[in-house]
Amino acid sequence: MTEKPNNFLPLEWPTNRVTEIPFRVFTDEEQYALENERIYKGETWNYLCLEVEVPEPGDYVVSSIGETSIIVTRDHDGELHAMVNRCVHRGALLCLDRCGNADQITCVYHAWSFSLKGELTGVAFEKGVKRQGGMPPDFKKENHNLRTLRVAEFAGLIFGSFSDAAPEIEDYLGPEIASRIKRVLCKPLKVLGRNTQILHNNWKLYVENTKDSYHASLLHLFFTTFEINRINQSGGIIVDSSGGNHVSYSKIDEVTTNADYKSQSLRSSKENFNLEDPVLLDGVDEIGDGITLQILSVFPGFVLQQVRNSLAIRQILPRGTTKTELVWTYIGYADDDPEMTERRLIQANLVGPAGFISMEDGAVGAFVQRGIKGVEEDNGVVMMGGHTAESVPYRATETSVRGFWKKYRTLIEGQAPNA
Amino acid sequence: MNIEMRLAVEELFGRYVASIDDNHLEAWPDCFVEECRYVITNRENHAAGLPHGVIYATSKGMLKDRISSLREANIYEKHQYRHLGGSVRIVGTDNDLIDVRSSFLILRIMHDGETTIFATGEYLDKVVSTDKQYLFKERLVVTDSQKYDTLLALPL
């Protein structure tokens, strides 16, 4: 008999704190299965889509919670519903298109049909054909409805939960996070476009990245290279009491107009760098509080970003232990004039898969995933700014990364760690 | 439509591809007039009339800024593209603007040799004839897929 190597033992954390993260948490298949049960199907709210994407009765959108396909519908009474996109009969996917409008949902396999609320309404050949076959008398349609989820709407965002025990959405978000969502999603929205970035890393590495304010000025060199945000940068981090939700914000007293930009002839120290066309920096303080950057996350996989006037939703979806889909939805307000829309589209060059200040995030998680391969028995360290996960008035900290692990361990282990 | 026009358009396409695939990125903006548009979108957004572009440039200056940023600021693993173009259709001429459509296949070759299909799609172009050569007034890159692998650094 030979001993099993360490990396086949159950995942164990080195301490009761969240400052050392076992690398196996990013590679382990059993851990991944546990996450599906205790996080995605556990006491969490998962972002599904925007209300503006299902405005009319009969509208539906197919989204995901974890790897599970979920249908969001608006029924003929205007009520929202969410249900597993799986036929109760043989388990086939029901909706194959990403979105659409329908009076009912019909499975292509055996034509079982369902209402927009998820009730089984029709079984093909239920009474048989020419009195032969058919379902037995003990088959009751009302016992075979689709598996429905709890649905919550908040500020135009639609969330779903498998769990009856998850707190109400406002309590789940916490007052500070809720108010910062409403700060940005303060009026009716319109969708400007969508795309999806494929990341070759575990989903948690991307979540950590969005919560990691420490890396921002170190990995993303666009602003410093073009010396754009050197003046009076202030900001901070808010972590909710559960740890799982956060806001990172900064105020940059920056040069915002072309004229100002040119008059100051901003240059970096080593080279004569300035933007040929500073229209990219032509922002307006539309919310009126001077905050030019707000990155907000809700556990497990929702991000709302305001980078100047570029607004977007990011949905982080696991696709196996080493693959993640990052679904971007770029938004504006329904009452934006063409000039404001153009401004948002131009500033969107900063973000997304080709974003001047975000493209690196598409690769850096995979650098970790490749770096830990074969040596998963070791631990990473998350100590910048201390051991706990609290709100702080500065950004050189990993406090919200620790917050993520606090919430994560609470759900996985059933008790909160020391954070 | 005449044969010289087609040859001049194809010459522009050749210069465009060479600037990217041969890593002469500084020559890439020179394929455009000063007041130009270069937008990368996907078929789903384009069909729905959604205006967002993964790259959305409204001047030659913005194209130069993108190259400066790639050279000096952005961090990504070394890679190159190989563009393969489908047949070029000149679908109309309106005053000085030539409407051109063509399909493309772009392979991405990472520094370690790993080669993947990075993007397929269609170029919807408005080409203008200047004194010396033909240039893009507008290039709308419509990728067939809305998915982009890892990141999109080099222009398509």
Throw out a few tags for this protein.
heterodimer, A: 419 residues, alpha+beta, 7-stranded antiparallel β-sheet, 10 helices, 19 strands, globular, B: 156 residues, Nuclear Transport Factor 2, Chain: A, 6-stranded mixed β-sheet, 3 helices
Structure in words:
The complex is a heterodimer of chains A (419) and B (156). With 419 residues, chain A is α+β, with helices and mostly antiparallel strands. Chain A has 10 helices and 19 strands. Chain A has helices spanning 29-40, 169-173, 175-184, 203-211, 216-219, 222-225, 258-264, 338-347, 361-371, 399-413, and strands spanning 20-22, 46-50, 59-65, 68-74, 80-84, 99-101, 105-106, 113-114, 120-122, 148-154, 157-161, 189-199, 234-239, 246-251, 291-298, 302-307, 310-318, 324-333, 379-381. In chain A, helix 4 (203-211) runs antiparallel to helix 10 (399-413). With 156 residues, chain B is α+β, with helices and mostly antiparallel strands. In chain B, 24% of the residues lie in helices and 46% in strands. Chain B is built from 3 helices and 7 strands; from the N terminus they run H-E-H-E-H-E-E-E-E-E. In chain B, strand 4 (97-110) and strand 5 form a beta hairpin. Chain B is globular. The A-B interface holds A 98, 191-200, 219, 221-222, 224-226, 271, 273, 275-277, 279-280, 325, 330, 341-342, 345-346, 348-349, 352-354, 356, 359-360, 362-363, 366 and B 40-42, 44-45, 50-62, 64-66, 68-69, 72-77, 146-153.
